[in-house]
């Protein structure tokens, strides 16, 4: 503020009252703002010089002390997934080749039983031709086959076309066995009336 003196009517100098209003306010605020700006500028300058990580240049390393620079950690190029479980391979049990078991004696197929042969019945040999001695010769043949010839003779009834073995009732199997033992070419048929009911009768034609 500026004090001014104004001469009075009696000639004496009087001091004027200080001015007030906007001019006085400007005179107070402007210096204050300048002071605040200076303080802020100093703080900014101090911070910029004191933080070595904000300024890449101008760092001063004290003599005798090693420079410690942070070592950057290089990430692994191949990410490892620790959450993935390692598959476990279980080998399948080997299957051994089965061998064919040898059948035991009880498992071996038993041979079929031999069929029961018909009994050998007594035989009568008759000559059905005019050839002398044919019955006697045929008796020898029957005997050699293991059969018992009880008698020989001549056939005097109706002619017979082929050598035939006549059998009484119930003797059919025995007649078939006798034919097989001789040659198998003889005929077999039921006995005629008047023939023996307990013996086989052969009428020989050749």
Walk me through the structure:
This protein is an alpha/beta fold and 206 residues long. Among the domains are: 20-51; 123-204, Alpha-Beta Plaits. It contains three helices and seven strands, in the order ββαβαββαββ. The protein has helices at 22-50, 134-144, 172-182, and strands spanning 5-7, 13-15, 123-127, 149-154, 164-167, 187-190, 200-204. A five-stranded mixed sheet has the order 4-3-7-5-6, covered by helices on one side. It has a two-stranded antiparallel sheet with strand order 1-2. Strand 1 (5-7) and strand 2 (13-15) form a beta hairpin. The radius of gyration is 77 Å and the shape is rod-shaped.
Can you write the helix and strand succession as a string?
Answer: EEHEHEEHEE
The major sheet is characterized as: 5 strands, mixed
Number of β-strand runs: 7
- List the uncertain runs: 54-63
Distance between the termini: 187 Å
Short recap of the structure:
By secondary structure, the protein is an alpha/beta fold. It has 3 helices and 7 strands.
List strands and helices in order, with pairings.
Elements: E1 5-7, E2 13-15, H1 22-50, E3 123-127, H2 134-144, E4 149-154, E5 164-167, H3 172-182, E6 187-190, E7 200-204
Parallel strand pairs: 3-4, 3-7, 5-6
Antiparallel strand pairs: 1-2, 5-7
